[in-house]
Amino acid sequence: MTHAPALAAADPYTPLSYKSATKPIWCPGCGDYTVLNAVTKALALVQRAPHEVAVVSGIGCSSRIPAYTTCYGFHGVHGRSLAAATGLKVARPDLTVLVASGDGDGYSIGGNHFLHACRRNVDLTYIVMDNHVYGMTKGQASPTTEPDWDNKLSPGGTGVRSFHPLVIALAAGANFVARAFSGDQNTTAELIAAGIRHPGFSFIEILSPCVTFRPEQKEWKNMTHPAPVGPTDDAARAAKRIMTDDGFNIGVLYAGHRAPYSGGPGEPTRALEQMEEEFAL
């Protein structure tokens, strides 16, 4: 694995600059603890002041992250984090906007927003902690759960093919597609920082084990490995790589050159007083 470059002594912001006093309450052993550390390390690498960063989330274990940072935060409703973040970035293009989600929040009820956020290519960084299960609601199958995973809520498995987020992101138009593993904190920080720096919509899937409901995922640390080839800007080549990999290749899989959405709020055409007159009774 590669390692995130060390911070220079003169850098004014360290990972601690982005950590709030609120203590995380995830289950012991949850991969989201190290994802949080990777996010704060990534922000220190890009050296944006905390008040110049906004973290938006929906619902789920992963969506607690805004409260654990000193950045602006918005904890929205289930599946709607990308909609809120898109509006925020378009209205305030000066902000660095991160979106924290999980496989249930992001790919199930939030799946439609995922597709169109990739298509619009607004300059956001979408971080999805994927553990192939709904952790907060006690262990039912999520869109990325293996079809034969046997559990109390789906005896014998769902029999439904797993959602493939990286393929969907690429096909829908994401400008940066990467996969990380929460157990490798430095590489995860490096990938998040690369996504923040890359223009347009950046999607980073982070394999983040849920050892409470999927204890077998402890083996992910032995299954993840650096991607055997470097990133490409050829979408067709990236699609072939992603479709044929084992699901555990770590690194940047695609880095495109599509120009990000450049629309904004524009200049007002009427004064507020004029608009108020129209609604006067």
What does it look like?
It is a single chain. The chain is of the alpha/beta class. Helix content is 30%, strand content 15%. The protein is built from nine helices and eight strands. The protein has an eight-stranded mixed beta sheet with strand order 2-1-3-4-6-5-8-7, sandwiched between helices. Helix 1 packs across helix 6 (185-197) and helix 3 packs across helix 4. It is globular and about 65 Å long. The N and C termini lie far apart (66 Å).
Q: Give the DSSP E fraction (strand runs of 2 or more residues).
A: 15-25%
> Alpha-carbon distance between the termini?
66 Å
- SSE sequence, one letter per element: HEEHEHHEHEHEHEHEH
Count of DSSP E strands? Answer: 8
Give the structural class.
alpha/beta
User: Quick one: overall form?
Assistant: globular
Q: Mean pLDDT, rounded to whole units?
A: 91
**Biggest beta sheet attributes:** 8 strands, mixed
Please describe the topology of this protein:
Elements: H1 32-46, E1 53-57, E2 72-75, H2 81-91, E3 96-102, H3 103-109, H4 111-120, E4 125-130, H5 165-172, E5 176-181, H6 185-197, E6 202-207, H7 220-223, E7 225-226, H8 235-244, E8 249-255, H9 272-278
Parallel strand pairs: 1-2, 1-3, 3-4, 4-6, 5-6, 7-8
Antiparallel strand pairs: 5-8
Helix pairs in contact: 1-6, 3-4, 4-5, 5-8
Task: Describe the structure concisely.
By secondary structure, the protein is of the alpha/beta class. It has nine helices and eight strands. It has an eight-stranded mixed beta sheet with strand order 2-1-3-4-6-5-8-7, with helices on both faces.
